[in-house]
Amino acid sequence: MMRGYEGASADRPANPKRYRVVRSGESWRVEVNGCFTGPIPDRKVAVRLARTLQRESNHLSHHGTGTTVQ
Known about the structure:
Blueprint: E1 20-24, E2 27-32, E3 35-36, H1 43-61
Antiparallel strand pairs: 1-2, 2-3
């Protein structure tokens, strides 16, 4: 098994990523697992990006097609 994926299998997938939109001074950032994008001035743009990333992550990890952006 690959390193970092212990406990994940076809029957038990790894924990899904959850993308969040967070305030950063006068702008917004998309955060996942403690990593952030660069500043995004418009919250709607940040939310749209987070939803797109969440959909792609869900598709790649077979967790469904719904989004869970906060």
